[in-house]
Model the fold of this input.
Amino acid sequence: MQRELKGGLDDRGIAALWGCIADLDKIVPPINEEYCASYFTKLRTMAQVAATPYIPTAT
Done:
């Protein structure tokens, strides 16, 4: 997130960000503790917002 805010991500950073989103998609659903689930859901939302400019366009 810091790199995105300070000028954007390179290809490696974009790949890492999408990897984190995929990981969060796997770990958040089975979390039974409400506070923890909420925290990781917020992280996932921030990551998605940062990744949105890097969604490839359909060709």
Remarks:
- The helical segments are 2-5, 11-27, 34-51.
- Residues 11 and 53 are 13 Å apart (CA to CA).
